[in-house]
Amino acid sequence: MEEINKETEIEMEKLIGLIEKIAVSKHATIAMGVRDPDPETVKCAAVAVEKKYANVILVGDKAEIEKASRIYYKLREDEVLSLPFQIIDTAVPEDELVSLLVSGEVDAAIRGTAKASDSLSNLKKACHINKIHRIAILLAKDENPHFFAPVGIDEGTTIEDKVEFICLGTHLLKRLGVAPHVGLISTPDEAGRLEAAEIVRIITEEKKLHVVDYKLDLEEAFEHSNYILAPNGITGNLIFRGLTFLGGGDGLGAPILMDRHVFVDTSRSAGHYTKAIMVASALSKKKKIEEESSN
């Protein structure tokens, strides 16, 4: 996988600025799935284009997207509609989104408001992957970013899966030039203690990585770790939602870790996708504009 930052390790508080800078320098073509579009959806795409994060393609019902766009831009039906993004007309964005990605017609994709189950199922089939590994990028209330997993309710159910999450997440952080500090959240029952001990053993002895078991001390984990692993996907999903919807945090999307393609999962309930487009553009394998110019 391409190294995003080959320089010295950066501080976490500088990470978002780095991701934004890389997104602008790559200006990748990003497809976003759209169902039931509203003016806020249009705004997210328009702002991403305005900030030069990416060329954006909205994938969904063209008539509905144009209707939402007229509301956002406050245009009458008889006024000319000129949009900063492209629209691909389809009744099934979950199919078209994945097709665009695997065919190479776009550099990366975000789920947007497309259906989660159908989008991820299509992605698994098209990319020939058995399990989805999503790592959410979470901005805490103090604006400091953390990587967090698992967030899918059927993810992180086995020791092997959690070890894979730690390895993949560690690799992602290193790609971004960040020194990984992995914090494990574990349950206090006997099964939870035994599982945590085995994960720590595998990670330290076999994978030669570092992880700290914070048990149920979530505050300590967030204070001392930049990548936090929840006991399972259900717990992780609840923690993530609590921090974003009730705790004043913000989600930047959840990149699905794959070798060939970049797909950033998003929450329909969050309703804002500009930052997810930024993340997708930064993680894409498109060369930076200055690199293309020199070739």
From TrEMBL:
SUPFAM superfamilies: Isocitrate/Isopropylmalate dehydrogenase-like. One of its GO terms (biological process) is methylation. The keyword Transferase applies. Keywords: Methyltransferase, Transferase. GO terms for molecular function: methyltransferase activity. This is Putative methyltransferase MtxX (Methanogen marker protein 4).
